[in-house]
Amino acid sequence: MAAPLVEMRDISVSFGGIKAVDHVSVDLNAGEVVGLLGHNGAGKTTLIKVLSGAYQADSGEIYLSGKKARIENPRDARAYNIETIYQTLALADNLDSPSNLFLGRELTTPLGFVDDAQMEAETRKIMARLNRNFHNFSDPVASLSGGQRQSVAIARAVYFDARILIMDEPTAALGPQETEMVSELIRQLKSEGIGIFLISHDIHEVMELCDRASVMKNGRLVGTVNIADVTDEDLLSMIILGKNIKLAQSQPQQTAAPPQPAG
Length: 263
Prior knowledge:
Layout: E1 6-15, E2 18-28, E3 33-37, H1 44-52, E4 59-64, E5 67-69, H2 74-79, E6 82-85, H3 97-101, H4 116-130, H5 146-159, E7 164-168, H6 176-191, E8 195-199, H7 203-209, E9 212-217, E10 220-226, H8 232-241, H9 245-250
Parallel strand pairs: 3-8, 3-9, 6-7, 7-8
Antiparallel strand pairs: 1-2, 1-4, 4-5, 9-10
Helix pairs in contact: 4-5, 5-6
């Protein structure tokens, strides 16, 4: 079997003596969506920021396709084809979609000028692959809907050859129609072999889109389960109680010892 796309082994991160992530191990395969669940402060965002290069782990190792990786900053992460789409999206509201897609990595003409026409042509090409209903190429992204803005952020990541995509609450504050638009984008990326870590508070979203889910509580990994093997209630129990439901189910029931005869 091929090595996982990502292996985060025994990762620990502390802030001021408080362990935000405490010896956590998770992995991700190509063409798989793994949900990261847990209450605010559970440690899921801190864990994933180690992979994106935003934080440094105090201990632990990261392997990408079986090879040890050194990720010290976001530039290192991008060099490994890891892209992050944060909830804030990091879009420049006053610029149009092509300008946002190539922000900081603009295409230029042989004379060194920004090549707006080529950037729009490339944006149309990637959007034709990801979201055929997107037509607002010349409008400032501030005027776009939440789902369309997500499309721009996802297109930016995919255009620059993301193999590993981190998505932080991608459907937060979106309506049902826009949520379905983003869900379709995630399914499309999965079909193309991209591995996705999906940070979410929405158990129904995780049940619908993910292959596996890793639940964290108080900086520790409660467990990782196959979505096909669990229910919404199972995941909720893991989040609230901090117990791996599969382990709990496999433990033998304690029975009272039979009374001993007198004498």
